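[#protein-structures] MJ: dropping ABC transporter substrate-binding protein here for a structure pass
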Amino acid sequence: MRSLPFRLSALALVCGQVCAADLVVGSVNPMSGVMADMGNELMWGARAAFEAVNAQGGVNGNRLVLLAKDGGYRPAEAAAVVKNLIEQDKPIALIAIAGTSINEEILNQKLLNHAQIPHVGPLSGGAVLRRPINPYLYNVRASYRAEASRLVKQALTMGATKIAMFYQNDDFGLDGLNSVEAELKKHNMKVIATGSYETGADDVRAAVSTIAKAGPDAVIMFSADKTAAAFMRGMRQHNSTANFYAASLVNHRILIQQAGLNNVQNLVISQVVPSPNNLSKPIVKEYRDALKRHIPEAKPSYFGLESYIAAKVLIEGLKRAGPSPTRQSLQKALDGIGRYNAGGFELTFGPNDREGSEFVDIAIVGADGEFRQ
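AK: finished. structure tokens for ABC transporter substrate-binding protein:
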């Protein structure tokens, strides 16, 4: 797998490799293939935060180095890359690794526990990352249950009476399905039809046929980009007029490329951080300024802002861990953060609280392909 070391300091560049005086933070994400946009946006966000703090002299005099490796998007392969990164590169922490199944595999192999290494801001709202609490895992984003609740409420507000569910048949998708069903039950409603696909599969025709026949006026999708695009395109080919709602892991630009703007327009997507265009939020302005100054080729994005916030949490923990932090002192410092205000974005952490944030908003794809709130 490709290794993409973002060397964030002049010292690291002079050494040619990571210097002993630098604090290495590792991440493994898809940096190539159809998911590369998400992986790059995540790394740009974290990198911007590290670059900004390094420009001010680092954290307690320590400079931060982001070491990003391409792990693809398959659990076993990505976990193997994580294991290798931990053992060979000796990072003090991990940050923003994406995927419920990938993070579950990391937990199942006890990679965090064996290495006693904190992982801040996994890109997943999965229940498996929340209960039981793992002492080394610090969630930043809201849970999929919170996202599902917000999507159902939005659909009902827009007049939906017949809601169907399209989902990926793994922990991510099943978490979404169970959460949607639980939310609808509060309103004495049920999902009228479901359609699923296996992780990594491309063929969604059976799901399209089943859901289209049920005649929903809304479909909630817990799906990857490629399959969500194929599903929406297929539903329109079946003359469905249903409105589409999606969980936050989809990239609307990829959906437009693969399904066409006509099919994606008015798509509602739940978002777990504020809009990267909402300059009334101090964290957004800070993120955009850091991106412009340190990574001018990168565009502001939801994924980038999310990893920037995760990096802020990690930086706060490192500040509290002292001038010679270890994984153990960092874990203790993160547990002691309590309530943390990241520029208008509230998070909480403690030994028995790893939820991070409960923030969920929505964004709607407009006629120009951009978001309107």
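MJ: nice. Residues 151 and 270 are 7 Å apart (CA to CA).
AK: one more thing. Confidence is low (pLDDT under 50) at residues 1-16.
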